[in-house]
Amino acid sequence: MESSRVRATPAKDAASFQGTSLSRLPRRISTLLAELKSASSSGDLKMGRRLHAEAAESGADTHIYVASSLVNMYAKCGSMETARSIFDKMVRHDVVSWTALILGYAQNGQGKVALELFEAMQLTGCAANAQAFVAALKACTSLAANEEAKQADGRPVKMVSLEKGIALHSQAARLGFDSDIFVITTLADMYSKCGTMDNAREVFDRSPKKSSVLYNTLILGYAQNGQGRLALELFCYMLSSKDCLPVRSTFLAVLKACTVLADKEAEGILGGKVRKVASLEIGMAIHVQAWRSRLELDLCVASSLVDMYCKCRSLGDARRVFDRMKIHDTVSWNSLILGYAQNGDGKTALKLFETMLAEGCVPVRSSFLAALEACSAFSEEEECQFVNGKVAKVVSLETAMAIHSRVDAEAAKHGVDIMVANTLIDVYAKCGSMTDAQRVFDGMKHRNLVSWTVLMFGYAQNDRAKMVLELFSQMRYFEEWIPSSQAFVAVIQAAADMAALAAGKRIHGDVCRLGLELEAHIQSSLVDLYGKCGSTVGSQVVFDSASSRGIEMWSAVMAGHSRQGDHSRVFELFKGMVRAGVRPNAITFLSLQIACSRAGLVDKAREIFLEMQSSKFGIRPGIEHYNCLIDLLGRANQIDKAVEVVESMPVKATAVTWMTVLGACQKWKNSEIGKRAFDAVMRLDREKEHHTAAYVLLAEIFEAN
To answer: Same structural domain for residues 407 and 301?
Structure first.
């Protein structure tokens, strides 16, 4: 951290150049100042250094205005070491030079140094003006960007930054600067970034004059703090008051608010398609306003419209906006690619990525993240294949490798981005290649908690539970991080898959010691753990202690009792869940079917199977539900009916489906249907996973006859 100590100068010296008009300065000085301002605005460091050399050669760099402009130029170009060196060599400092340096540190992410300099300025006797307070408040905003939020009144708040901001606000008010529109706008932004929108709104309401920038700041603040509805209400107020006209940044802020609403809204049906209906209607109204303001085709606004339509699940509208754009940049491409990926159309998303590259648009970090998200979505659609004795999503894996190759090429120029590396681990895991996932992980020079967690989840998803437990131990031993709730979910899932009750109890103890036992995802995982380990008592204890119960927890506790054959308790829990207003899902009904199968309740199972498809629940049965019903009919010696289900079901029968029928035929010595089931297994099981078992079952059928 750089020291904020500087040479103290008398207040009269600091103010000696105040009020001097640029027109009264020597021509060469005024020209130099204008050129330095141009270099600052464009961030042209090369031009700035040339001007600095000219100023030094002529001796103009000792002039306080020139020196202050040099400090400002280097700060704007991100060269704070040089800016500080020039500042320290100045004979006198005025409020302009102080402000330039303070603002430079604030804008370059060093808020703490900036605030130390603000205090040092005042200690030298140099009085702060409105611009100095703007710089200091921006320093608080910079601090907030790096501070971890803490819960206060149910909302995440940056407490340390907020306290410093409140102190500055109080000081500015005492000096009468809290009526300056720039100070007001910066205060609203600071409070927004600290997470206290009530304070930001109070500043807004007390402002005697409201600018478009102030409106935009508050609208964006509401959006970034998850209060989309209030952001939209303020936008409507802005339009109705006619004090200010919406500009580009207004639409960017309000479209962000619309996407916040869409993220929270449940899906509905509009025109026979799944949509975020309310958010889509609002987004379309904003689109109309953008059209009226002649900003519809502005590059930034159009890209935000694409993103908004994607979030509302209206890909057709997103594509229409995209196709009407005169030019496409990486932001617009990324928005569309990510939109298709997040809506489950990975194939189209990947084609768009290829088109983007073909059109010469250079991918950036967010482009690779979008492409990898698309690859992940595509892997969900692809069926597994056996490659060298291992299950993999071959096409998705090849695509991921191609994207990885481009990532490596960019990394050679700019270094490896940790978020891209973490996403690569996740994609390789979803494609079934833990070898490649581990290789990426091992090649990372720097890892974070997400890196470990993603790799653990990958091994868990690929049925490598033992590796998850080993990685968890390594992370605890080699790293200083406290495991996150997601990391605990992964390791609890691994212990559950291994039915390792003792290990599960130790992990449960760690969770309690870290105070994470009340987190919903962890509680659901613990319920599942105890259920899979056969400890329905442990499962029920965790379930009963939960303050709120979502569908995952209800399904987990039902599955635990179902495995133990306690069908009456499963049905009781189902009734309790419905009474609690929790909507059952496909897993819930699968647990009910398994309970019926264990108890031999054929009629009840049929009733449940029909009930899940009724208008009350509207759940379409998957292959697992059909296989469970077929198994139950087979156990009850209703093999003909089981075959009827196989032949009439809308999903394609698998080798597992016919193996279930073949198992029933072996039990009841049905050679005719058994031979038919055997032939189907041979035809469907291309990887010969079930061939040996099928031959054994068929042999036993014929031996019995």
So the answer is: no
Query: 419-428 burial by CB neighbour count: b if 16+ within 10 A, else e?
Result: ebbbbbbbbb
* Closest of 17, 43, 224 to residue 141, by C-alpha: 224
505 burial level (CB within 10 Å; 0-12, 13-18, 19+): middle
Q: Which residues contact 296 (CB under 8 A, 6 or more apart)?
A: 287, 290, 302, 305
Structure tokens at 404: 């990885």
User: Closest Cα partner for 598 from 588, 590, 610?
Assistant: 590
Q: What percent of the chain has pLDDT over 90?
A: 77
pTM value is: 0.77
Per residue in 527-562, pLDDT tens? 999 999 999 999 999 999 998 899 999 999 999 998
CA angle 670, 672, 673 (to 5 degrees): 75
The answer on 351 and 323 residing in a single domain is no
664/660 Cα distance (integer angstroms): 6
Residue 228 located in a structural domain: yes
How is residue 245 written in tokens? 């006209």
Residue 142 lies in a domain: no
The residue type at 6: V
- Residue by residue, DSSP assigns 210-277 as --HHHHHHHHHHHHHTT-HHHHHHHHHHHHHH-SS---HHHHHHHHHHHHHHHHHSPPEEETTEEE-H
Domain end (from 327, 353, 369) = 327
Number of domains in the chain: 3
Nearest to 431 by CA among 467, 385, 396, 468: 396
Q: What are phi and psi of 269, to 5 degrees?
A: -115, 130
Q: Indicate the SS3 state at residue 66.
A: helix
- Radius of gyration, CA atoms only, the chain: 32
394 within some domain? yes
The residue length of the chain stands at: 705
- Are 642 and 670 in a shared domain? yes
- Residues 6+ away with beta carbon under 8 Å from 81: none
Asked whether the beta carbons of 557 and 573 are under 8 A apart, the reply is yes
Query: The domain containing residue 357 runs over which residues?
Result: 341-446
> b/e string for 214-226 if b means 16 or more Cβ within 10 A?
bbbbbbbbbbbbb
Task: List pLDDT tens digits, range 254-313.
Answer: 999 999 999 999 888 787 788 899 999 999 999 999 999 999 999 999 999 999 999 999
Residue 39 lies in a domain: no
- Domain identity same for 346 and 440: yes
